[in-house]
Amino acid sequence: MYDYLKGVLTKITAKYIVLEAGGLGYIINVANPYSFSDQLKQELKIYLHHVVREDAQLLYGFHTEEEKAVFLQLISVTGIGPTSALAIIAADDNDGLVEAIDKSDVKYLMKFPKIGKKTAQQMVLDLAGKFAEFSAEESKAAKAQSQGNQNLEEAMEALLALGYKASELKKIRRFFEGTTDSTENYIKSALKMLIK
């Protein structure tokens, strides 16, 4: 129904962003809300997927058409809903994902939140060879911010929202204590550690 939306980014939370367009504020669920931090109060274009359920209408947003295409492939797998698909995309490791699917690496796929053995096997069956056209996007150079601990807290909150357990994040938090980085970089680094 919707392909994309252009508007001003007015709010960032652990689970979603708010984009104002035509006087309306649209809640858009995204994989890593804090990856939009440097665009707050700026106009941007978000690619959309619209989900209509009996009890809700939800918008899922993506930086690029490629990211949206990966999401659509993921939710086509039985057992993977939009929330799980966003958690997989948030790891920002398309190369690793494609390789794991093509090599039937079920163990690797099970490291994503809410992905059990059965679902991982289904991913391999349904998606093998289907990601060939997607090239991994280059990570955007994130600007280091001097907020340090505040950014770390935001990163931990976002990871909890993606479905990781507090006990898992406790170990990760210790690793980053005393460091200074952007929320986006903390999330990316933590996700890489969590799926290893």
Can you walk me through this structure?
There is one protein chain. By secondary structure, the protein is α+β, with helices and mostly antiparallel strands. It folds into 3 domains: 4-62, OB fold (Dihydrolipoamide Acetyltransferase, E2P) (Beta Barrel), CATH 2.40.50; 65-127, Orthogonal Bundle (DNA polymerase, domain 1), CATH 1.10.150; 149-194, Helicase, Ruva Protein, domain 3, CATH 1.10.8. It contains 8 helices and 5 strands; from the N terminus they run βββββαααααααα. A 5-stranded mixed β-barrel has the order 1-2-3-5-4. Strand 2 (16-21) and strand 3 form a beta hairpin. The longest helix is centred in the C-terminal third of the chain and has 13 residues, at 149-161. It starts with a strand and ends with a helix. InterPro entries: DNA_helicase_Holl-junc_RuvA_I, Hlx-hairpin-Hlx_DNA-bd_motif, NA-bd_OB-fold, RuvA, RuvA_2-like, RuvA_C, RuvA_C_sf. Residues 147-196 are annotated as: Domain III.
Strand order of the largest sheet: 1-2-3-5-4
Low-confidence stretches: 135-148
- Tally of individual helices: 8
Question: Order of helices and strands, N to C?
Answer: EEEEEHHHHHHHH
Instruction: Estimate nothing, just give the exact number of structural domains.
Output: 3
Helix content: 40-55%
Largest sheet: 5 strands, mixed, barrel
What is the fold-level CATH name, i.e. the topology of the largest domain?
DNA polymerase, domain 1
Per DSSP, what share of the residues sits in E-state strands of 2 or more residues? 15-25%
Rounded Rg: 17 Å
Structural class of the helices, strands and pairings? Answer: alpha+beta
